Amino acid sequence: xxxxxxxxxxxxxxxxxxxxxxxxxxxxxxxxxxxxxxxxxxxxxxxxxxxxxxxxxxxxxxxxxxxxxxxxxxxxxxxxxxxxxxxxxxxxxxxxxxxxxxxxxxxxx
Amino acid sequence: xxxxxxxxxxxxxxxxxxxxxxxxxxxxxxxxxxxxxxxxxxxxxxxxxxxxxxxxxxxxxxxxxxxxxxxxxxxxxxxxxxxxxxxxxxxxxxxxxxxxxxxxxxxxxxxxx
Lengths: 109, 113
Prior knowledge:
The complex is a heterodimer.
Chain A: E1 5-7, E2 10-13, E3 19-24, E4 31-37, E5 44-49, E6 55-58, E7 61-65, E8 71-76, E9 85-93, E10 96-99, E11 103-107
Parallel strand pairs in A: 2-11
Antiparallel strand pairs in A: 1-3, 3-8, 4-5, 4-9, 6-7, 7-8, 9-10, 9-11
Chain B: E1 4-6, E2 10-13, E3 19-25, E4 31-38, E5 42-49, E6 56-57, E7 65-70, E8 73-78, E9 87-94, E10 103-104, E11 108-112
Parallel strand pairs in B: 2-11
Antiparallel strand pairs in B: 1-3, 3-8, 4-5, 4-9, 5-6, 7-8, 9-10, 9-11
């Protein structure tokens, strides 16, 4: 079946750092979406991408739909403490809904 | 704003009990979903529904059933709870036209002892 490989699994951030994460698949998707889950809450949609090559920003967040339609990345610029949480990628195709396993962002001690 | 609510945030049940998890959305969404979330495994789809009284199995339906008698309400049922069903359960909904943009509830953390 379809699978999404999301990396890194976890990372530590220091305030002000830029963060990058990505999802790759051997399958083609028509849609890529990125969600963030705060501790103890449900995921919240951050960015939705519907066209190959599309680059979309939402404040300090930037996401791109890979030109091959098999990957997507999410960048967070100038991270702040409230960026901690779990980020999920989500690929959609022909009614199939696949989530990556998540990237957990924590604050560097 | 879309609001998806779940009946309980935390639930503790005993092995063998019948468990009902309820989800209600207030935006007239056609599609509703139940996921379970486990560390290292991400979100896994249990069941979904595209219409009232309609249901489709997801990736891990074993041990679960669902009910959708009204458009706004989607229930997940554990017929006989087992310890391996201890998990975070998330409900989500989407419109028919933008079916991939999911709105999630806050989750129910179920512990089966």
